[in-house]
């Protein structure tokens, strides 16, 4: 973040970070609300667990909690790096504390909808922490990745793709003439430019590695059966008569574990490892919930839902 942080934006982010930081403010709201502006009694001093960075009516913002909040903001792609940024953010935290204290003073924490929201947050936060604790330390060994790869590698195989040129003419007579020319040694690209009525004619009939959904079954079948350098017999299609030539083929082979997945920076090893980790975590959670349900006394009146 360059320059001074926008007050409103950061203040909103501070509030939204309750799910990331543990929300000490919400924990406070579970307590009895003090009188407005209440701080330490006379002769008392605040006892922060850390280095006091700011004190607002006796409530301490520690340097340690400030640094943690800054790190949490990075999850939202908000960078607070310069001294001016930090000063602005600290001012936002002071403002947040003042608004919170005013809310307590007005008894907002005693409102039913607020207390219900706080309770829902508390349950959700504890459930998330339990799941994190339950799934902590789960690992996937290289041998497990290799076993999964060997079992399912056929499903990882990329479909065969063909780079194709085409000639499209209106009549069967024109198609026969084109075939005679090709068999006599004519260049496919030059013939496509001269005779084809397809939009690809300007490129010598070249449509590259095309999407099979853009063509029809007969066309795709010819493209798959031909080897690179071969051209087909003429055949009829939606726009007339076609002749296709395969220039290149790719895919159809089982990728190596160390090979990157097309369009990503992740390897197949990475993908399989993450898949197995997710499966193990899901199974651990399933085992936990099954045990809790089995040991619990539960009475559900489903008829009330109708």
The separation of the N and C termini measures 53 Å
Strand order in the largest sheet: 4-3-6-5
Determine the number of helices (DSSP H or I, runs of at least 4 residues).
11
Contiguous uncertain segments of 5+ residues: 2-46
Strand content: 5-15%
What is the average of the pLDDT values?
Answer: 86
Structural domain tally: 3
> Would you count the extended β strands for me?
6
Largest sheet: 4 strands, antiparallel
How would you sum up the global shape? elongated
Percent range for helical residues? Answer: 40-55%
Category by helix and strand content:
alpha+beta
Topology as H/E string?
A: HHHEEHHHHEHHEHEEH
Task: Work out the radius of gyration.
Answer: 34 Å
Structural description of this entry:
The chain has 306 residues and is of the alpha+beta class. The protein has helices at 7-16, 18-21, 24-29, 63-75, 83-105, 112-135, 142-156, 172-183, 188-195, 217-225, 268-295, and strands spanning 52-56, 59-62, 161-169, 206-209, 235-237, 240-250. The strands form two sheets. A four-stranded antiparallel sheet has the order 4-3-6-5. A two-stranded antiparallel sheet has the order 1-2. A hairpin with a 2-residue loop joins strand 5 (235-237) and strand 6. The longest helix is centred in the last third of the chain and has 28 residues, at 268-295.
């Amino acid at each position: 973040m360059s320059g001074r942080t926008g007050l409103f934006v950061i203040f909103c982010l501070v509030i939204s970070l309750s799910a990331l930081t543990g929300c000490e403010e919400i924990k406070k709201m579970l307590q009895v609300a003090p009188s407005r502006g209440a701080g330490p009694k006379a002769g008392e001093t605040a006892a922060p667990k850390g280095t006091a960075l700011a004190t607002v009516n006796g409530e301490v913002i520690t340097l340690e909690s400030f640094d943690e909040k800054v790190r949490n903001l990075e999850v939202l792609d908000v960078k607070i790096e310069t001294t001016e940024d930090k000063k602005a953010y600290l001012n936002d935290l002071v403002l947040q504390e003042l608004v919170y204290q005013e809310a307590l003073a007005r008894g907002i924490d005693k409102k039913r909808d607020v207390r219900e929201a706080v309770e829902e947050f508390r349950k959700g936060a504890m459930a998330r922490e339990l799941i994190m604790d339950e799934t902590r330390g789960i690992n996937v060994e290289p041998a497990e990745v290799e076993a999964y790869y060997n079992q399912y590698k056929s499903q990882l195989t990329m479909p065969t793709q063909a780079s194709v040129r085409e000639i499209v003419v209106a009549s069967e007579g024109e198609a026969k003439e084109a075939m005679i020319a090709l068999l006599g040694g004519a260049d496919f690209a030059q013939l496509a430019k001269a005779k084809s009525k397809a939009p690809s004619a300007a490129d010598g009939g070249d449509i590259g590695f095309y999407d099979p959904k853009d063509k029809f079954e007969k066309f795709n079948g010819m493209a798959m059966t031909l080897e690179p350098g071969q051209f087909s017999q003429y055949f009829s299609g939606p726009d007339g008569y076609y002749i296709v030539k395969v220039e290149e083929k790719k895919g159809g082979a089982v990728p190596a574990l160390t090979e990157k997945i097309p369009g990503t920076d992740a390897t197949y090893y990475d993908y399989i490892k993450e898949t197995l980790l997710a499966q193990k975590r899901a199974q651990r959670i399933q085992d936990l919930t099954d045990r809790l349900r089995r040991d619990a006394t539960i009475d559900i009146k489903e008829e009330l839902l109708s």
